[in-house]
Specification:
Blueprint: E1 2-6, H1 20-28, E2 31-34, H2 41-50, E3 54-56, H3 64-69, E4 73-78, E5 81-86, H4 95-102, E6 108-110, E7 118-121, E8 127-130, E9 144-151, E10 154-162
Parallel strand pairs: 1-2, 2-3, 5-6, 6-8
Antiparallel strand pairs: 1-9, 4-5, 7-8, 9-10
Protein name: Phosphoesterase
Organism: Amycolatopsis heterodermiae
Cofactor: a divalent metal cation
Length: 167
């Protein structure tokens, strides 16, 4: 099972559209995971139409229409991997311990908010993933997203992809 992991798209504020490379990944993915800050419902509609399966949550910049359609926390069992998605996990300091306490029955937690790519494993074995942002790099050198695979009940092949600068 192939996953595409994105967050903090901020459309149309930070960019007018998702980069074509990300749309190609949407087409190839079995599951698209979006960790919030969509900003406009149009992208949600588009991803629902073009994804085989979409798992998403709302973020702090998402208004009532998105909050009506998306949960604050999403959970799914994907091929034996217990996935949870949330927009914000708080400050970097203490993140692993907080997430271990808040998500004890989870194997992988995808989050966003910071626009800073993240891939660590907590003391309890929880994998924490933040894909950064494909449209708003902030202080990062590149806009980014992640892909991964689930095979035989395990998350594998987690890869951070850097997007070329918009011209």
């Amino acid at each position: 099972m192939k996953l595409l992991i994105v967050s903090d798209t901020h459309l149309p504020g930070r960019a007018r559209v998702l980069p074509e490379q990300v749309w190609q990944e949407v087409e190839a993915a079995d599951v698209v995971v979006h960790a919030g800050d969509w900003v406009d419902v149009t992208l949600l509609d588009e991803l629902e139409a073009r994804s085989k399966r979409l798992i998403g949550v709302y973020g702090n910049n998402d208004g009532p229409e998105l909050r009506t359609r998306l949960p604050e926390i999403a959970r799914a069992d994907l091929g034996g991997v217990r996935l949870a998605v949330i927009h914000e996990t708080g400050a970097k300091q203490g993140r692993e311990q907080r997430c271990d306490a808040q998500f004890p029955d989870t194997d992988v937690l995808v989050f966003g908010h910071s626009h800073i790519p993240w891939d660590t494993t907590t003391p309890a074995g929880l994998r924490l993933l933040n894909p950064g942002s494909p449209t708003d790099r902030r202080r990062q050198p590149f806009c980014t997203y992640q892909t991964a695979r689930i095979s035989e009940g395990a998350l594998t092949d987690v890869e951070l992809h850097e997007l070329p600068p918009r011209g």
